[in-house]
Amino acid sequence: MATTDNHEETSPYHNVEEHKKTYQWMMDFGFTVGLPVGGAITMFVMLMLLGSSFFVGVFLSFLTWLGLLGISKTFFVH
C-alpha cells in the first residue's frame, strides 16, 4: 500500500515565501507608485479648485510627485 506524502499540500505554512513576496511587491508598488501619484493628483485637484492656472497646477503636482517619490524611496522601500 503506497501512500503519498501530502504534507506540503496540507500545511498552512507551505506558501509563506510566496505570500512574503506578494506582500513585499504590494508594499513596494503602493509606496513607489500609489503614494506619489495619489499625492500629485490630490495636489492638482486642490490647485484647480483654488483657481490656479493649469500650468502652475501641473508644475506643482510634478514637484509633489517628485518629493513624495523621494521620501517614499528613502524611508519606506528598502
Tell me about this structure:
This protein has 78 residues and is mostly helical. 77% of the residues lie in helices and 0% in strands. It is built from three helices and no strands. It has helices at 7-10, 16-49, 54-75.
Question: Layout of SSEs?
Answer:
Elements: H1 7-10, H2 16-49, H3 54-75
Question: What would the keywords be for this entry?
Answer:
78 residues; mainly alpha; 0% strand; elongated
**Biggest β-sheet: count, sense, barrel?**
none
Number of helices: 3
Report helical residue fraction: over 70%
Rg over CA atoms: 22 Å
Global geometry:
elongated
Average pLDDT level: 85
Q: How many runs of DSSP E, i.e. beta strands?
A: 0
Give the termini separation.
51 Å
How large a portion of the residues is in β-strands, by DSSP E?
under 5%
SS content category: mainly alpha
Order of helices and strands: HHH
- Uncertain stretches: none
